[in-house]
Structures are given as C-alpha cells and as structure tokens.
Amino acid sequence: MKKSTAGLQCGLLLSLVLVLAGCARTYYSAMEKVGVHKRDILVDRVAEARDSQAEAQQQFKSALEQFGSVVKLEETDLKQAYEKLAAEYEDCSEAAQRVSDRIRKVESVAGALFDEWEDELDQYQSRKLRRASEQQLQQTRKHCRQMLHSMHRAEKSMQPVLLSLHDNVLFLKHNLNAQAIGSLRAEFSNLQQDIDGLISRMNAAIEDSNRFIAAMEQK
Questions:
Q1: What torsion do the CA atoms of 146, 150, 156, 157 make, to the nearest 10 degrees?
Q2: Residue 7 confidence (pLDDT) above 80
Q3: C-alpha 164: how far from its chain's center?
Q4: CA distance 155 to 97
Q5: Residue 61: exposure state from Cβ atoms within 10 A (0-12, 13-18, ≥19)
Q6: Strand, coil or helix: 72
Q7: Is 191 in contact with 45 (CB distance < 8 Å)?
C-alpha cells in the first residue's frame, strides 16, 4: 500500500511538472508573437527578483527594529508587543516566499532561453558566427549561474532568521512576562548577526543582478 501511494504521488508530481512546463512554453510562445522574447522576460524577471530582495531587506530590518523595541519594554506592554512582533514575522515570511518565487521564475525562463539558444546554434551556416554565438551563450550562462548562486545564498540566509523569529514569537506568546523579555534579550544579539549577514548576502545578490541586467541590455 505504501509503495502504491508513493508511486501515485510521484506520478501526480510528474504530471504537475509537465503541465507547468507546458504552460511556460505556451506563455513564452505567446509573448514572442507580440515581440517580447525570452531574453526580455529574463531581464524583467531578474529585475523583479532583485526588487523582491530589496523589499525583503527592509522587512527583515523592520522586524529587527521591532524585536529590539520589545526587549526594552515593561511587562504592561507585552501583549501589544507580541502582536506587533508576530505581524513582523508573518510579513518576513511572506517576503521570503516572494523572493523564492521570483528566483524560480528566473530559473525557468533562463533554462528555456539557454536551451533555445543552444538548439539554434546548429542553424548557422557560418562557422565564424556560430562560434561567436556559442561563446556569447557560454558567457551569458556563466554570468547567470553566478547571479543565481548569489540569489540562492541570500535565499538560504533567510531561513535561519525566520526560524529564530518564529521561535521567539512563539516563546513570547506563551510567556507574556518580564522573565520572557530577559530570555529574548539574550537572543537579540544572535538575531542581529543573522540579519546583518542576510542583508550582506542580499546586497551581493542585488549587485550581481544589476551587473547581469546591464550586460544583457548591452547585447
């Protein structure tokens, strides 16, 4: 029974992947008919991923500021403080999900663009032009890989921060007292370091995104 269930789940997952891939191909084809090509979509999606990381930066900074204000509060303010910190955590979680979604979209169109580019190399009659196009493909693919690596590093850095925020929000929820604030104070320094590291990695990813966009717009 377990094997049968696992097989069914794998089959459903494969079907979903094929449907999504088909939807993506249909979308790219429709956009090309109106003059918007995969490289244009890639540049737009990289810009969207970059912007979502900048927005996430601000959201995590806001959460850190809220956390910092909580550890300075007196007991009478704890319930309201918990509600604000819980809201910051939810906003951070949503911001992190947007970043991940945008990265997946960049990967999708990048894969489609590079596959198409590679397939079309065989259409060249001129060896010189084919070689030049192949070199450009390799260079663009390399730059895209570097950019995505930076994006994934920043993306992974969000998870420890989210887990830490969730733990502290949950602890405060069930311990609305001065002793809880003392425990949170001990966590603040670690959280600050994690968020500083996250922001640094996001800045690197944003810079890589800007360089990639600039290079694509020059070609």
A1: 160
A2: no
A3: 19
A4: 9
A5: middle
A6: coil
A7: no
Q: Which one-letter amino acid corresponds to residue 4?
A: S
How far apart CA 164 and CA 182 sit, in angstroms, is 16
CA 15 to the chain's CA centroid: 25
Convert the pLDDT of each residue in 30-75 to its tens digit: 877 888 889 999 999 999 999 999 999 999 999 999 988 888 766 5
Of 41, 102, 28, 70, nearest to 175 by C-alpha is: 70
Predicted TM-score (pTM) of this structure: 0.83
Phi-psi region of 31 (alpha: psi -120 to 50; beta: other; left: phi over 0): alpha
Q: At what angle do helices 38-70 and 2-33 cross, to 10 degrees?
A: 120
Cβ burial 174-201 (10 Å sphere, 16+ → b, else e)? eeeeeebbeebeebbeebeebbeebbeb
Q: How far is CA 174 from CA 39, 64, 125, 169, in A?
A: 51, 20, 72, 9
CA distance 98 to 79: 29
Amino acid at 131: R
d(CA 198, CA 202): 6
| Nearest C-alpha neighbor of 46 from the set 118, 107, 124 | 107
- Alpha carbon of 107 to those of 20, 46, 51, 122, 149: distances in Å? 14, 9, 16, 24, 11
Count H helices and E strands in the chain, helices first: 5, 0
Q: DSSP secondary structure string, 135-149?
A: HHHHHHHHHHHHHHH
